[in-house]
Each structure stands twice: as structure tokens, then as C-alpha cells.
Amino acid sequence: MGVRAALTVALMAALELALVLAGGPTWATIPCGLAMALVLPGYVWFRVFSGTRAGSVPQATPLRAALISTMTSLGIVMVTGLVLNALPAGLTAHSWAIALAIIVAAGLVALAVRARTPGAARTGDAAEAQSEADAAPDGSVTAAGESALAAQGGGDGAEGDLAAARRRAPRPATVAKCLAAAGCVVGAGVISLSTQHTENASEHFTALSLNAFTTPRPTATIVNHQGRATSYTLTVTSNGRVAASQKITLASGGRFTKALQPYVLANPNATLITVTVTYPGLSTPLSNHFVTVK
To answer: Lowest-confidence range among 77-86, 100-109, 171-180, 258-267?
Structure first.
């Protein structure tokens, strides 16, 4: 990654962070946020591990680099979401912006450190020469490129190395990076789904619903999502007077339906039917109602 590309990435990350923290307009925050989440983290860290120095051309083709960068970004975002969800700050726009900005900044620092490493510079020279050779329409290569390829091949000759570079299969390191990126995506997805399933299982509640507006014979339905057998008290009032009270016990996942038509017919005038449900440990009774006009 060259200096201009690094500056562009840093400016985009800083812009997104400023927009989120300052509450910028949606039309600007969303595009920058998508780039911050789906492009920048993977792009920077792919350059860190691609074995190129600053200013050199990466060994991977543009398509391969784009795929690896996107997959890596998705994996980073998923893992970051799991980490943020476990922290007190939670999943907020501010926490997302700060976390991704830190990840991108860390990648840029790693790139700067790698560019100063002699081994990384030698690898970058060879990659630049190889990319130059691949891009030449007539198969020619500059003298500097030949020297770099010859140095990389240990004296076997630039011409032989150039031919090998043209027909070589993907390097094991590149394949490993693709598999690692795919593993991050799949692993984070599995962890996310399992975590959501655990969270759903830990949320205990009771559902009370009325279907008075979809049928001429209204009913009240109770569904037990408490995760255990629960005793309920169901009370039906008509125009403020108790018309019926019933105790029921439902197993976990059990359902009970109460017909309300008799209480509607019992009053010739306008009727306010209220259904109330209580059970042990419930501080505020569940309540629902409807009105019929004759």
C-alpha cells in the first residue's frame, strides 16, 4: 500500500469516526460506515499479510485481493460485534465506529512497521517486478525487474523466474489466507447464531393475544414461554364486572384458548371485554381488551 492509499484509508476512517461521534447527516454517515465495515479493515490487514512493502504492487490479482479483503472485513466485523456485545458499552454506533477505527489504525501502524523491515522490502521488490512482468503486453520486463527476480530465485536467471511467475499456481500462503478469512466468517457466524439462540432461550415470558378483530367468535390465547410449567389465573371482565375467573396450568410451550363470545352476547349493549392474566412472580398483570357495539 502506497503512502497516498494509506492516507486515504486514514482519512476515511477519521471521517466516519467524526460523523458518528458528531451525529452527522445520514446520507454521509451510511456510505462511510459501509466502507468502514466492509472494505477498510480487510483491505488494510490484507496488505499487512500480503508480503509487500509500502509503494509496491501486491502479489495478488485485483480480484483475489478484493475477495480476500471483503471476506476478512466480514470476519473482523462479526468478531468485533461479539466482543462489543460482551462489553458494557454494547452494540452502539459510537462503539462500532471507535472499534473499527482502532482496528484500521492498528493495521496502518503494522504496515508502517513492516515497510521498515528489510525482509519485507526485499519481498516487495520481487512482487513489484513480478507484477510489472505480468502487466507487460509483450512479455518484456525492465532491468530492475530482472534483477529483483534473479535475486529472488537465487541466481537461476530472471527469464526462468519470469516464466515460472506467469504459470505458477496460487501460493500456499495465499490459499491459507483465503481459508483463514473464510474460517473467520463461518466461525463468527456460528458463534453469533449460537449466542443468539442462548439469549433467546434465556428470555422467559408469557404471550396473551386476542383475535376479536379477525373472527366473529373472539377468543383469548395464552402461550407459555417461561421455560417451565406455570400456573395462571385468567380473569374476564365485561363492562368492568368480573364475568369469569379460571385457574390453569400450562407446560412449557403450552397454549390455552378461551372463548369470549358468551360474555359478548350476555350484554345487549356496547361491551368492553377485558382479559387479565397473572402468574407467580409477575409484578404487573397482563391485560388486553376490545369493544363490541351492537
So the answer is: 171-180
Q: 270 and 181 share a domain?
A: no
Note whether 80 and 100 are within 8 A (CB).
Answer: yes
HSE toward the beta carbon, residue 69, CA cutoff 13 A: 23
Q: Are 64 and 134 in contact (CB under 8 A)?
A: no
What is the CB neighbour count within 10 angstroms for residue 254?
A: 16
- Residue 132: all three cell numbers together: 510489472
Query: CATH number of the domain that 231 lies in?
Result: 2.60.40.10
pLDDT digits (tens, 9 = 90+) for 208-225: 998 877 677 888 999 998
Q: Domain range spanning residue 263? A: 205-292
Taking only the tens place, the pLDDT of each residue in 44-90 is 888 887 754 444 444 557 777 778 888 888 888 888 888 887 787 77
Together in a domain, 54 and 182:
yes
**Residues in Cβ contact with 30 at an 8 Å cutoff, skipping those fewer than 6 apart:** none
Question: Number of structural domains, the chain?
Answer: 2
C-alpha cell belonging to residue 73: 472485513
Q: Are residues 108 and 30 in the same domain?
A: yes
